[in-house]
Every structure is written in structure tokens, then in C-alpha cells.
Specification:
This protein is an alpha/beta fold. The protein contains 9 helices and 9 strands. Pantoate binds next to strand 2 and helix 6.
């Protein structure tokens, strides 16, 4: 496993691989890798591509009151996991490398950036779109892998790739859950034992909505009211949003159809967690 620190090193390495006839796969992460990231890396490695995992806790996607400074960092364990799952290089730039002094260019996906997580975390998707554009520009991957757990992020990035005519194909991998149904997230490490139990309400509400749809319910107002009632049964949980939206536009829908995104975000103590399902 190679550790690459600069954009120049990354660019040189992927160009070398490309010259040898290999395609390039990028798995952008903020580190604190878990089984969800492992599945992205494994899926990327199966194609035989040269797999580069990027590990950068991007300061520009955190609000001033958010958890940037305490976001979990575990480079040694991340290296081990990435290598085990088939990554061949890990790109870990400094903040100065990604944002040199005077850095003044941002990418904003208008409209989508202010919905769901973008509404409660102003500036978040601008930070995500900017860093992912930079990573795609630096590595020029054929494919880039993202988890469905960040479904709104996926919608923003898909639109960005289309609008900017970027070369990379975005591959979206399913949510990975613990055996009790909690969607894996690096932020789960913030939860106390008690909070972890309370957090199970998110996975439960996702299953509840899936079951209602499977039984023929399609009306958004019914599905959302049931979801809110189900979340209210866990008093320790504070709802941020519960939404039923078109996954491309992130606009609310009145009727659930194939591919509609049901998404939820909630606070458990000081930890904000998200979960979702794409209705089938
Ligand atoms: O999903 C994440 O971990 C981050 O938002 C990403 C895509 C790596 C950009 O910093």
C-alpha cells in the first residue's frame, strides 16, 4: 500500500497505472473507515481497477459549530482496512495541499445544495462538491464510489458530474448495517451505549416505511405522518428532517413511486445521524 501526500504524487501514480493499461477507481472518504467503506473498496477492487482511497477530513464541509475537530481519525487502522480490501494507494493530503493559500474557487450545485442535509447544514454540500471536484480532477478516475447512506450527497454529486461534464462514472453502493439495523457511520463512535439503542429508531422507521409501501401505501402524507409518529416513540431523539423526495431533484413528492427517496436525519444527544431507503 502506497501513501500519497500530494496532488502531484497522486497524479503521477494514476497516470503511470493508466499508461500500463489499467483503469482507475477512486473511493473518497474522510477516514475512520468501517465496514461500509470496506464494501466500497471491495466493490471497486473487484473490477481490477487501480483503487485509490482518499482520506481527507475536509474542513470546508463542516459548519463552525460542527464536529470537525473531534471527527474520528485513525490512520493506522484505515491503512490496514484499505489494504485488506484491495486498495493499492491511500491519498492523505494536508489541508494546505487541498486548499493552498488564496484558494478562492468553490463548486455549488444550486438548488440541490439547500435541500435535506444542505438545509440544516448550510454550506455543507458546497464543501463536498468542491472537494470531490478537486479529487476527481487530481485522480481522473474512471469510476468513483459513494455510499447510498449519504443519499442527498449522491444526488448533489451526480448533478455536479453531469453539469461539469466530468469524465468519472459515479457508482453508488448499498447501505451497510449492523446486525441490529443501525446504518454504519463513522459518527456512530460518538454514541454512548444508551444512545446507540435510541439510534435504532432510525433503522426501524426506514423498515416501517418500506413495509407500508410494500403493502400498497403510496401517499406521502400518510407515509411521512407514520414515520414521524414512529420516531416520536423514541423521545430521546430530535428529528432534523423526515422527507420523501425525488432522488434526482431532492424535491418533495406527494406520491411515492419506484426510486423515490425516503430520508431521515435526527439528533441523538450531540450526534446527528442519517438513514434512508430508495423505495422499490
Ligand atoms: O462522504 C464522505 O465521506 C465525504 O462527504 C466525502 C465524499 C469524502 C467528501 O469529503
Amino acid at each position: 500500500m502506497e501513501l500519497l501526500r500530494t496532488v502531484a504524487e497522486l497524479r503521477q501514480r494514476v497516470r503511470q497505472q493508466r499508461a500500463q493499461g489499467r483503469s482507475i477507481a477512486l473511493v473518497p472518504t474522510m477516514g475512520a473507515l468501517h465496514a461500509g467503506h470496506a464494501s466500497l473498496i471491495r466493490t471497486a477492487a473487484k473490477t481490477g481497477d487501480f483503487v485509490v482511497v482518499t482520506l481527507f477530513v475536509n474542513p470546508r464541509q463542516f459548519g463552525p459549530e460542527e464536529d470537525f475537530s473531534r471527527y474520528p481519525r485513525s490512520l493506522a487502522a484505515d491503512l490496514e482496512l484499505a489494504a485488506r480490501e484491495g486498495a493499492e494507494a491511500l491519498f492523505t493530503p494536508t489541508a494546505e495541499e487541498m486548499y493552498p493559500p488564496g484558494s478562492a474557487t468553490f463548486v455549488e450545485v444550486e438548488g440541490l445544495s439547500n435541500r435535506l442535509d444542505g438545509k440544516s447544514r448550510p454550506g455543507h454540500f458546497r464543501g463536498v462538491a468542491t472537494i470531490v471536484t478537486k479529487l476527481l480532477a487530481a485522480a481522473e478516475p474512471d469510476r468513483a464510489y459513494f455510499g447510498q447512506k449519504d443519499a442527498a450527497q449522491v444526488a448533489v454529486l451526480r448533478r455536479m458530474v453531469r453539469d461539469l461534464c466530468l469524465h468519472s462514472e459515479l457508482i453508488v453502493c448499498p447501505i451497510i448495517r449492523d446486525s441490529d439495523g443501525l446504518a454504519l457511520s463513522s459518527r456512530n463512535t460518538y454514541l454512548s451505549q444508551e444512545e446507540r439503542k435510541q439510534a435504532l429508531a432510525l433503522g426501524r422507521v426506514v423498515r416501517r416505511v418500506e413495509a407500508l409501501v410494500a403493502h400498497g401505501e403510496r401517499k406521502a402524507e400518510v407515509l411521512l405522518a407514520t414515520a414521524r409518529a414512529s420516531l416520536a416513540a423514541e423521545p430521546a431523539l430530535r428529528i432534523d428532517y423526515v422527507e420523501l423526495v425525488n432522488w434526482d431533484t431532492l424535491e418533495p413528492v406527494s406520491t411515492a413511486t419506484l426510486g423515490t427517496l425516503f430520508a431521515v436525519a435526527a439528533w441523538i444527544g450531540k450526534t446527528r445521524l442519517i438513514d434512508n431507503t430508495i423505495l422499490s
